[in-house]
Amino acid sequence: MLASASVSYSPCGPSALTVQPMAVLRPRPVFFHASDTEIYAQGEKSGSLYRIEYGAVRIYRLLTDGRRQVVAFHMQGETFGFEAYGFRSFYAEAIVPTGLTPVEAEGSEPHRSDLMALALRSMIRAQEHLLVVGRQSALEKLAVFLLDLDHQQGDDGIIDLPMTRTDIGDYLGMTIETVSRSMSKLREKGIVRLKNTRCIEILRRDKLQAISE
Description:
This protein has 213 residues and is an alpha+beta fold. The chain has two domains: 100 residues, Jelly Rolls (Sandwich); 77 residues, Arc Repressor Mutant, subunit A. The chain is built from six helices and 14 strands. The strands form four sheets. A five-stranded antiparallel beta sheet has the order 1-4-11-6-9. The protein is globular and about 45 Å long. The termini are far apart.
């Protein structure tokens, strides 16, 4: 669906949805995806890349036993959809109301160089995800996850959590109960504060970093 306005999801702000004229952001059309709707499916022929103008996207694969493995979360301003072959290796879904701009892989040399840098960054993040999942402690996994999200969102200590606890568990290789218990431990230790179910404030970054190391 072609969007005529940008809807910015921000659970940490005074309102979850802030409408802005699309022309203020960029002249290209923005396509709207409602919460939990599919952007592309595993096995489809690969095509355009996508830049997130607002919202958030989960990338995942369905395992043979029916379980879901989330491999990445992408936020506003990020580009996703890189593929090594001619088909989609994963599913992509909008987590919240999301606006996407298609980005063509072909173009001028500066454009291709920019895309190469984005692809390399995506590969590095995938490698870092493997390191997080391989950690022994659930608290360590969650600490690294929160610090990474904070870095994605500007390192200001206020973290928007558009994803659910189930999403986080499927990303970190934990049950939803373990995610909730670990979050409660961080809160009880005075390391984080839950402003609401989708917004976290880091109170003691030093302690959170110590847990993650």
